[in-house]
Amino acid sequence: MQIGALQQHFRSRLRKRTPWVIVLLFAALFTGLQFLVVPMATQLRHPGALVNSLVMPFLVSFSYGFLAPMPWRWSGDDRSRPAFGRGLLQALVFNALVIFALVTISWFLVRNADLKAEAMGLAPGVNGSFKGVLVLNLLVGLPMMTILGAIISFSVISEEEKAAAESRLEEAQWVLLRGQLSPHVLFNSLNGLAELVRQDPVAAEQGILDLSELYRALLRHGDRPRAPLAEERALVQRFLAVEGLRLGGRLRVLWDWDAGLDQVEAPPFLIQPLVENALKHGIAPHPEGGLLEISLRRHNGGLVLRVSNTGRGLGLVPGTGVGLANLEARLRLAYGSAAILHLRSEGPRTVATVELPSLEMRR
Q1: Which residues does the UniProt record annotate as the domain Histidine kinase/HSP90-like ATPase (predicted)?
Q2: Residue 224 domain boundaries
Q3: Taking a C-beta distance cutoff of 8 angstroms, is the pair 50, 37 a contact?
């Protein structure tokens, strides 16, 4: 890491809860030990010793938990860590300076010479001079601080590498799924327009123009793992316009859409596969056509998307078509098992429902 990245990494660790919990627990433990070494009555007579017992355990724990790992991350370039030899040398120098600073602070807090050795945890008979205290702390603390810093640093690096690998895998899966879906939509729409060419060439020409706009919108809409639902609705409206040229008055659409959810972000192509399934398998096969209803509502802190059509949909089993299987895979990728997709029959209607667990508002 370079200095800028190292500073950002340090601030990021400061914002995490777990390191703070560990630091504070050790600080509390060391504070208790400090009061065992120097009785409370003695410390009350010497405020500096009391401040030393309260402040130094926290500073020492903070240094071990947050500062000690830093020299193991500074490589001077884009690598996440330096070579081991360089990291060790950096850690020894850096930690020695930290220990010097800690001993200096403690030395000036405990102004009574008789208390210095006792307050700093030195055994009777140990040289209570600043030099003696510093040497003892370096002999004991420097190896511990260097080793612990390495352990923490390597653990954090391992977590970062694992998260980066998972992120790359997820991105690759998104790209694969998006690449699968866009041609699927295009091919199905072209098949529909091929029928229209023989029946109404003028309408077919307009349909081809609309299809080019639809495909352009598909490419824009699917270039990220989250998109506002307002964009999803606009995409579906384009898709229905293309299909409407083929189906004409046989296609009737009813929207029941909560506009307050327009800026909620969800995986792209959330509605389009359900609408396509309803048209292809529920409405288009019937000479009289049918009614397509699209609903979006809040529910238990999340949202429920419902697409229903007269006639039957594709089987009644998710995953039996490319679009639905693709949607299932993307929902699992985005929400794990928290999102629900199911198809069911309600009398003469087929209903597809997607339940999402949380509302992600676009800022």
Answers
A1: 266-360
A2: 200-361
A3: no
